[in-house]
Amino acid sequence: MKTRKEAITFCSKLEDVMEDYPFHDPNWTVMRHKKNMKTFSCIYQRQDYIWINVKCSTEWRDFWRNAFQSVVPAYHMNKEHWNSIILDGTVPEPDVKRMIQESYDLTRPKKKEKIGVRKEGAKNGFT
């Protein structure tokens, strides 16, 4: 994955997402969940490459940054929770897709518990 189009195409295949341009700047493509409008990736060009900002769990944040020089603290985002992936060809495509998928999963709408349905573990007194 090296182009904006490839990144947008991959993100668009995920369930219930939308492509947005909230900054009125065609350089910034924001991929969001339709239901909660949360961003899971920002795709933009910077320093002659396409960059993708993705949310990451704190457990994986440093792993990705240490594994690849082209995964850095996110540009214009909270560096504790977001990484930037620079699409310069050094990060294998399966890893790029995995990071996007993780970001999607971390930001997806929470499923509401139905009334009368107990949480797993509630039967043992644990909630």
Concise description?
The chain has 127 residues and is of the alpha+beta class.
Helix content: 25-40%
pLDDT < 50 stretches: 122-127
Q: What sort of overall outline do the alpha carbons produce when their principal axes are compared?
A: globular
Mean of pLDDT:
90
* Percent of residues in beta strands: 25-35%
Q: What Rg, in angstroms, do the CA atoms define?
A: 17 Å
Class by SSE composition:
alpha+beta
The strand count comes to 6
Report the total helices: 3
Provide the succession of SSEs: HEEEEHEEH
Strand order of the largest sheet: 1-2-3-4-6-5
End-to-end distance: 42 Å
Biggest β-sheet description: 6 strands, antiparallel
Write up this protein.
This protein is α+β, with helices and mostly antiparallel strands and 127 residues long. It contains three helices and six strands; from the N terminus they run αββββαββα. A six-stranded antiparallel beta sheet has the order 1-2-3-4-6-5, covered by helices on one side. A hairpin with a 2-residue loop joins β3 and β4. It is globular and about 35 Å long.
Give a quick set of tags describing it.
127 residues, globular, 3 helices, disordered C terminus, 25% strand, 27% helix, six-stranded antiparallel beta sheet, alpha+beta
Sequence-ordered SSE layout with sheet pairings:
Layout: H1 4-12, E1 17-20, E2 29-33, E3 39-46, E4 49-55, H2 58-67, E5 71-73, E6 82-86, H3 93-107
Antiparallel strand pairs: 1-2, 2-3, 3-4, 4-6, 5-6
